[in-house]
């Protein structure tokens, strides 16, 4: 028996990085998947799942557009007859622009994808989850939502807001049996961080990446997918309303320049 055997699951941002790793892991564990992304790359993810013997359908959708969110949820219900878990994972970085040069339009786009996207996933999944009396929602936040210096301002604000969305929604769902949690990844090697990794490779300083955490390395998408698997599964039946850093220990410390004690 897989850890998600027979469960109908949606993962957004499934065309790359964490979402693709999660798609492969969840389906290997028996989930029937609706893989959502705004790009065609989600079809490659679904091909990989099929080659590995898993069950998945691809849906091209923009997670920040309400009608498209309603569409991908309807897809899960029509394909698999129910919805057991949803991982609102899609996100954009937003770059590193000095605050004096940032525009409201830039903020609006980052918030639209990174915050409104998870909000719409919550809004349109909970009627189905609440009706059946169980279900799990996972949202990808970030260490940038916990502390400064991990990203630009709108990205950090969007991820802090995702953590708040998770906390407040856990209480909105009181007594329903539906759980919601967030994951706060540290630096993970994905499409989003490719420029950083490529730049370091070009400079020959790849071994400097990830040195701020006590594991002394960046993370891999599968290491975030593993936390998502736990939170989406019944193994996490008493885990609710929390935001879990998966960051090699990065956020465990105050800034500290000396030799570790
Ligand atoms: N990589 C990191 O270091 C890191 C750290 C903390 C948090 N995160 C978060 O992890 C999540 C996954 O990102 P990743 O690192 O795998 O990056 P990624 O760029 O490899 O994957 C993100 C996917 O989301 C999709 N996407 C973007 N906007 C979308 C939209 N409007 N509608 C539908 N799909 C959309 C992209 O097409 C892409 O396939 C994001 O929420 C990101 O903010 C990443």
Which features does this protein show?
Rossmann fold; globular; 7 strands; single chain; seven-stranded parallel beta sheet; alpha/beta; binds nicotinamide-adenine-dinucleotide; 261 residues
Quick overview:
The chain is built from 7 helices and 7 strands; from the N terminus they run E-H-E-H-E-H-E-H-E-H-E-H-H-E. The model has no long low-confidence stretch (mean pLDDT 97). The chain has helices at residues 17-28, 41-51, 66-80, 104-132, 153-172, 194-203, 221-232; strands at residues 8-12, 32-37, 55-60, 85-88, 135-140, 178-185, 243-246.
Extended strand count:
7
Can you say what the CATH homologous superfamily is? NAD(P)-binding Rossmann-like Domain
> Biggest β-sheet, characterized?
7 strands, parallel
Order of helices and strands: EHEHEHEHEHEHHE
* Strand content range: 5-15%
Tell me the strand order in the biggest sheet: 3-2-1-4-5-6-7
CATH architecture call? 3-Layer(aba) Sandwich
The count of helical stretches stands at 7
Q: Oligomeric form of this entry? A: single chain
At the first level of CATH, the class is: Alpha Beta
List low-confidence stretches: none
Could you tell me the CATH topology label. Rossmann fold
Structural class computed from helices and strand pairing: alpha/beta
């Amino acid at each position: 028996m897989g850890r998600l055997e027979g469960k109908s699951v949606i993962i957004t941002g499934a065309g790359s990085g964490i979402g693709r790793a999660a798609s492969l892991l969840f389906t290997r564990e028996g989930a029937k998947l609706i893989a959502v992304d705004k790009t065609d790359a989600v079809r490659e993810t679904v091909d990989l799942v099929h080659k590995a013997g898993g069950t998945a359908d691809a849906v091209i959708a923009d997670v920040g557009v309400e009608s498209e969110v309603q569409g991908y949820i309807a897809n899960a219900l029509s394909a698999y007859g129910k919805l057991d878990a949803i991982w609102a994972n899609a996100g954009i970085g937003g770059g590193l622009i000095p605050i004096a040069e940032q525009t409201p339009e830039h903020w609006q786009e980052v918030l639209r994808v990174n915050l409104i996207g998870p909000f719409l996933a919550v809004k349109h999944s909970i009627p189905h989850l609440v009706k059946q009396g169980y279900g799990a929602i996972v949202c990808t936040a970030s260490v940038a939502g916990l502390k400064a210096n991990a990203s630009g301002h709108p990205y950090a604000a969007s991820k802090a807001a995702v953590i708040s969305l998770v906390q407040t929604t856990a209480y909105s769902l009181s007594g329903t049996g539906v759980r919601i949690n967030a994951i706060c990844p540290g630096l993970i090697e994905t499409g989003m961080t490719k420029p950083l990794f490529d730049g370091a490779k070009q400079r020959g300083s790849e071994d400097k990446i990830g040195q701020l955490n006590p594991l002394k390395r960046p993370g891999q998408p599968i290491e975030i997918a593993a936390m998502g698997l736990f939170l989406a599964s019944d193994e996490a039946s008493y885990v609710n309303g929390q935001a879990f850093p998966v960051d090699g220990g990065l956020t465990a410390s105050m800034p500290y320049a000396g030799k570790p004690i």
